[in-house]
Design a protein that fits this description.
The complex is a heterodimer of chains A (175) and B (272). Chain A has nine helices and no strands. In chain A, α7 packs across α9 and α8 crosses α9. Chain A starts with a helix and ends in a 12-residue tail after the last helix. The relative contact order of chain A is 0.12. Chain B is of the alpha+beta class. Chain B has 14 helices and eight strands. Chain B has a four-stranded mixed β-sheet. Chain B has a two-stranded antiparallel sheet with strand order 1-2. The interface between A and B is large, with 35 and 37 residues.
Chain lengths: 175, 272
C-alpha cells in the first residue's frame, strides 16, 4: 500500500465512521469495477456478482470499524470481502443444488470452508492471488510485505489449501 | 476490467440509509457532535455482549460510559426543546456528578441495547432540532458554567469523540480523529477552557499546537520562558484526560520547569 493510498484510505475511513453519506458514492466509483470483477471471477454468475458487490459496499457503510486503514488498503479489504461472499454464496448454491446427493459429497468441504481454516496471514495472500487475480508482486504491495514473503506465504497457503480437501491449482496463479 | 451494470450504483446507494442513518446536516458548531454520535453508534453496532462489559474509564464499562454520555447530553434538551431520555430529579439536574450517577444507576438496571437506543434517540432529536441548525441566543447551565447552547453542542462533540476513543481502545477498535475542518472549533473550546481555569503560572509559557486548527497561545504575562509543542489532536486528548502526557509526542524548549508546569496544568484539568 502506497503512502498516498494509505492517507486517502484513512480519510475515507474517517468520513465513513462520521456518517458522511457522500463518501460511499466516491468509494463505489473508485472500486466498484474491481469488486465486481473479483465477485464475478469467483462466482462465475453476473447475478451473484451484482448482489455481492452491493452487499460489500453497504457492509462497509454499516460497519466501518470492520475496515482498519492501518492494517491494509481499502482496495484489498473490499476484494477479500467480495471473494468470501461470492465463494460462500456459490457454495450454498452448490449444497442446495446437490439436494439428495450421496452423503459422501456432503463431507467434501468447499474451498471457502477450507480457506477459512487457513491462518489469516496466509488466507489474505491466497485470496488476493488465487481469487482476485493479483500477481505476487501486487499482493506484496497490497499487504505491505516483501515479495519474498508474499511468494512463500502463497506457496504454503496453496499447499495447505490442497491438503484441506479441494486441491488448489498453483499453475493458475499469475507469478 | 469488467464493469458492473449501470443500475447497481443507484440501487446500492439507495440502500444506504436503511443500513445506518447518515449524520444529519447541522450548523458548524454541532458538526463535531453529529460526527461523534454517528461514530459511536457505528462502534456500538460492532460490540459483542462481552465487550459491552469491558472496563473503559472512571470505573464504567461500555454500558456505563454510554449512560454517562447520555446524562451529559441531557443537559442540552431543555434548551433545544427536545425530550430528555431520563427524567433526572430536580436535586441532581444541575449537578454534573449527581446527574451522571443518577442516570448511570438508572441505566444499569436496563440492558446495554436499551441504553444504546435511548442515548441514540436523545442524540438524534438534539441533532434534528432547529437549535442544531441555527445559532440562537439561548443560554444554559452547563458543567457549572453559564454557556451558549451552541457552545454546549461543541462541548458534547468534544466529549463524545474522546469517550468513543476511550471505548474503542478498550475493545480494540481504532477510532479516527475528528474531521480536520472541525478541529479549529474543538481546539478553540480547549484553549478557552484552559485560559479560564488555568492558574497563574510561575512564568509565561507558550503553547504551540500544530495540525488542523493550529494555533499558538501564551499563558501568563511577560516574556515567554518556555515553549511546549504538540498536535491539536493530542492537546484535546490531554485536556480531556483521554491520554497521559508521557504517551504523547510533545516537544519542549526553554525552561524545563515552566514546560512541565504547563503540561501538568493541562492534564490536571482532565475535563471529562
Amino acid at each position: 500500500m502506497g503512502l498516498a493510498e494509505g492517507i486517502a484510505d484513512q480519510a475515507v475511513h474517517r468520513r465513513l465512521v462520521h456518517g458522511d453519506e457522500a463518501v460511499l458514492g466516491e468509494v463505489y466509483d473508485a472500486h466498484a469495477a474491481w469488486v465486481y470483477g473479483v465477485a464475478l471471477r469467483t462466482a462465475g454468475d453476473p447475478a451473484v456478482a451484482e448482489q455481492v458487490t452491493g452487499e460489500v459496499f453497504l457492509r462497509l457503510w454499516e460497519r466501518p470499524y470492520d475496515f482498519d486503514p492501518l492494517c491494509g488498503s481499502l482496495r484489498t479489504w473490499l476484494a477479500v470481502r467480495a471473494h468470501r461472499r461470492a465463494a460462500a454464496r456459490t457454495a450454498r448454491v452448490r449444497v442446495v443444488g446437490r439436494g439428495t446427493a450421496a452423503s459422501g459429497d456432503a463431507e467434501v468441504p468447499s474451498t471457502a470452508e477450507v480457506l477459512a481454516t487457513l491462518p489469516v496471514e496466509l488466507r489474505d495472500v491466497v485470496e488476493l492471488a488465487y481469487f482476485c487475480g493479483l500477481t505476487y508482486r501486487q499482493v506484496a504491495a497490497e499487504l505491505s510485505i516483501t515479495e519474498l514473503d508474499a511468494a512463500q506465504r502463497l506457496r504454503t497457503g496453496l499447499l495447505m489449501l490442497g491438503e484441506g480437501g479441494k486441491p488448489g491449482d498453483a499453475t493458475e496463479v499469475r507469478l | 476490467m469488467t464493469r458492473p451494470p449501470e443500475h447497481l450504483r443507484a440501487r446500492t446507494l439507495a440502500g444506504l440509509a436503511l443500513c445506518r442513518t447518515p449524520a444529519p446536516p447541522t450548523a458548524a458548531f454541532a458538526a463535531p457532535y453529529a460526527h461523534a454520535v454517528a461514530g459511536l453508534d457505528a462502534l456500538l453496532r460492532d460490540l459483542t455482549r462481552a465487550e459491552w462489559a469491558t472496563p473503559v474509564v472512571h470505573g464504567w464499562d461500555v454500558h456505563g460510559t454510554v449512560a454517562h454520555l447520555m446524562a451529559g447530553d441531557g443537559l442540552l434538551c431543555a434548551g433545544a426543546g427536545t425530550p430528555e431520555a431520563v427524567h433526572v430529579p430536580k436535586a441532581a439536574r444541575g449537578d454534573w456528578g449527581a446527574r451522571t450517577r443518577y442516570v448511570v444507576a438508572v441505566e444499569n438496571a436496563r440492558s446495554p441495547h436499551a441504553t444504546w437506543g435511548s442515548w441514540h434517540s436523545q442524540a438524534a432529536a438534539l441533532l434534528d432540532s432547529d437549535a442544531a441548525r441555527h445559532h440562537r441566543d439561548i443560554h444554559l447551565e452547563f458543567a457549572g458554567r453559564h454557556v451558549l447552547l451552541a457552545d454546549a453542542y461543541l462541548a458534547r462533540g468534544f466529549e463524545t469523540w474522546l469517550h468513543t476513543d476511550d471505548i474503542g481502545r478498550a475493545v480494540g477498535r481504532r477510532v479516527p480523529d475528528p474531521e480536520p475542518e472541525t478541529m479549529p472549533a474543538l481546539v478553540g473550546l480547549g484553549t478557552a477552557t484552559l485560559a479560564c481555569t488555568y492558574p497563574t503560572p510561575p512564568a509565561a509559557t507558550t503553547l504551540t499546537l500544530t495540525g488542523p486548527g493550529a494555533t499558538t497561545t501564551t499563558l501568563g504575562t511577560g516574556v515567554s520562558t518556555a515553549e511546549v509543542t504538540m498536535t491539536t489532536v493530542d492537546f484535546c486528548r490531554l485536556l480531556g484526560g483521554n491520554r497521559r502526557a508521557e504517551n504523547l509526542t510533545i516537544g519542549t524548549d526553554g525552561d524545563p520547569e515552566s514546560a512541565t508546569w504547563l503540561l501538568q496544568a493541562i492534564a490536571s484539568l482532565a475535563i471529562l
